[in-house]
Amino acid sequence: MPELPEVEVTRRKLEPHVLGRTIRAVLTTRPSVFFLTPPHVLRRELPGHRISVLRRFGKYLVAELDDERRLVLHLGMTGQLFAHRAAVPAILARPPSRGAPRAAPLPAPDRHTHLRLQFTDAGPEVWFRDTRKFGRVRLLARVQADPRLDKLGTDALQARGLDLFEACHRRRIPIKVLLLDQTVLAGVGNIYADEALFAAGIRPTRRACRLTRSDCDRVVAALRRIMHRSIRSGGTTVSDYLDPDQRFGRYQLALRVYGRSGEPCWHCREPVSRLVLGQRSTHFCRCCQK
DNA sequence: ACCGCACCCTGAGCGC
DNA sequence: TGCGCTCAGGGTGCGG
């Protein structure tokens, strides 16, 4: 599932395919929850405009247009952005291990390809595909605020221990649940929350208010370290994630606890435990995390 | 303000 | 073979 590292890899690889290009036509599927801006509006409004910047905020991607409107994209759980060159054979072997992606390289758009941007030049189309439709697309008017975007906390890669420590004040929820709150640190999802808490030696069930300043420093440092490593590895492919070139991530090979319940802990060899917190499966080591 | 939980959606995997 | 069930989870919104 795309969290900050996967979204950042997507941004970096998509950027050269969109910057400075002018949209010629937009193809969409039928209206659905996927479209916060109705598809017929996107088809009408986007053509003729040039994409000037592609930014990331937490797990959001924002394409700024030449008229200062913004196209806001969220990949949800199964969202994929592709730079689709016609007639170029897609790569691909199986991913190195752990979870065989359901997705295979797409030779043609299918019913899950909800948005296709075609450009005035001969370069690739950009496709937004999302089987589960937990992803979202919205076109913001000039200077129009986005309620979700504006509520995001500090980007997880920019955060300091103090940011987390202040957010933990008087919060009685498990630290794992707090880490998933996008208004606290933007970009942290289920995988990296578990991995960072393991690296910091903190049990995910511990109440947020019971973390010390030093605990928070370790969690934030671990998040930054792990996310940077993951970005360098092309992100984590657990089930569906593919980058704009339809390549799998490789960071799943480096995961220490996520998806490893019952397998031996990297440090102490005790079996990794699993429980559910905030309706999300949570993985940790009873021995190494207190 | 805080917190728990149902819900959105689809495909995979499983038992029968 | 095929049906029906459960599970996965990012984010929203509601009720207590």
Quote the beta fraction: 15-25%
Strand order of the largest sheet: 1-6-7-5
Q: Kindly state the mean pLDDT as a whole number?
A: 88
Which structural category do the helix and sheet elements fall into? alpha+beta
| DSSP summary, beta strand count | 12
Regions with little confidence, pLDDT below 50 for 5+ residues: 87-104
**What is the overall shape?**
elongated
Report Rg: 20 Å
Largest sheet: 4 strands, antiparallel
Percentage of helical residues? Answer: 10-25%
Can you describe what's shown?
- This protein is of the alpha+beta class.
- It has helices at residues 4-18, 39-45, 147-151, 161-168, 175-180, 190-200, 213-232, and strands spanning 23-28, 51-57, 60-65, 70-74, 79-84, 113-119, 125-130, 136-140, 154-155, 185-186, 273-277, 280-284.
- The protein has a four-stranded antiparallel β-sheet, covered by helices on one side.
- Strand 3 (60-65) and strand 4 form a beta hairpin.
- Helix 1 (4-18) crosses helix 7, helix 4 crosses helix 7 and helix 6 packs across helix 7 (213-232).
- The longest helix is centred in the C-terminal third of the chain and has 20 residues, at 213-232.
- The two termini are 27 Å apart.
- The protein binds a DNA duplex (16 and 16 nucleotides) through loops.
